[in-house]
Amino acid sequence: MYQAAKQLAAQRAVELVSHGMCVGLGTGSTAALFIEELGKAIASGALTDITGVPTSIDSQRLATQHGIPLADLSNGFYCDLTIDGADEIDPQLELIKGLGGALLREKVVAQNSRRVVIIADASKRVARLGTKSPLPVEVLPFARGVVEKHFAQQGLRPKPRLKPDGRILHTDNGNIILDCSIDHVTDIRQLAKDVTGRAGVVGHGLFIGLADLAIIADLGGQVELLSRMSCG
Ligand code: A5P
Question: Which residues on adjacent β-strands are paired with residue 172?
Answer without folding.
Answer: none
